Protein backbone atom coordinates (compact mmCIF):
# COMPACT_ATOMS: atom_id res chain seq x y z
CA UNK A 1 0.00 0.00 0.00
CA UNK A 2 0.99 3.59 -0.56
CA UNK A 3 -0.41 6.81 0.83
CA UNK A 4 -2.32 8.82 -1.76
CA UNK A 5 -1.36 12.43 -0.99
CA UNK A 6 -4.44 13.87 -2.73
CA UNK A 7 -6.87 11.95 -0.50
CA UNK A 8 -4.60 11.42 2.50
CA UNK A 9 -5.47 7.72 2.69
CA UNK A 10 -3.93 4.40 1.70
CA UNK A 11 -4.17 3.15 -1.86
CA UNK A 12 -3.60 -0.43 -3.05
CA UNK A 13 -0.77 -1.08 -5.49
CA UNK A 14 -1.62 -2.62 -8.84
CA UNK A 15 -0.09 -5.96 -9.77
CA UNK A 16 0.27 -9.49 -8.52
CA UNK A 17 2.38 -10.47 -5.49
CA UNK A 18 5.53 -12.35 -6.45
CA UNK A 19 6.46 -14.00 -3.15
CA UNK A 20 6.03 -17.78 -3.29
CA UNK A 21 6.00 -19.12 0.26
CA UNK A 22 5.90 -22.76 -0.81
CA UNK A 23 9.47 -22.63 -2.21
CA UNK A 24 11.79 -23.76 0.58
CA UNK A 25 15.06 -21.95 1.24
CA UNK A 26 18.16 -23.76 0.01
CA UNK A 27 20.29 -22.83 3.03
CA UNK A 28 19.63 -21.67 6.58
CA UNK A 29 20.19 -18.12 7.70
CA UNK A 30 21.43 -17.10 11.14
CA UNK A 31 20.15 -14.42 13.49
CA UNK A 32 16.81 -13.76 11.83
CA UNK A 33 13.90 -12.23 13.66
CA UNK A 34 10.54 -13.98 13.30
CA UNK A 35 7.56 -11.72 14.05
CA UNK A 36 5.15 -13.34 16.50
CA UNK A 37 7.53 -16.09 17.62
CA UNK A 38 7.72 -16.69 21.37
CA UNK A 39 10.37 -18.62 23.27
CA UNK A 40 8.16 -21.73 23.48
CA UNK A 41 7.74 -21.72 19.68
CA UNK A 42 11.47 -22.20 19.09
CA UNK A 43 11.29 -25.98 19.43
CA UNK A 44 7.70 -26.48 18.23
CA UNK A 45 7.42 -29.24 15.66
CA UNK A 46 6.04 -28.03 12.34
CA UNK A 47 6.37 -24.33 13.16
CA UNK A 48 7.71 -23.81 9.62
CA UNK A 49 5.34 -26.21 7.85
CA UNK A 50 3.23 -24.62 5.08
CA UNK A 51 0.38 -27.04 5.85
CA UNK A 52 0.23 -25.68 9.40
CA UNK A 53 -0.86 -22.22 8.24
CA UNK A 54 -4.47 -23.39 7.80
CA UNK A 55 -4.61 -24.72 11.38
CA UNK A 56 -2.56 -21.79 12.76
CA UNK A 57 0.17 -24.09 14.10
CA UNK A 58 2.83 -22.52 11.87
CA UNK A 59 4.25 -19.02 11.58
CA UNK A 60 3.87 -17.55 8.06
CA UNK A 61 7.12 -15.61 8.42
CA UNK A 62 9.10 -18.67 9.49
CA UNK A 63 7.50 -20.77 6.74
CA UNK A 64 9.25 -18.49 4.24
CA UNK A 65 12.64 -19.13 5.85
CA UNK A 66 12.36 -22.80 6.82
CA UNK A 67 14.60 -25.21 4.93
CA UNK A 68 12.30 -28.18 5.54
CA UNK A 69 8.71 -28.49 6.85
CA UNK A 70 9.98 -30.25 9.99
CA UNK A 71 12.72 -27.78 10.91
CA UNK A 72 12.48 -25.71 14.07
CA UNK A 73 13.69 -22.22 14.84
TrEMBL record:
This is Uncharacterized protein. It comes from Paenimyroides ceti.
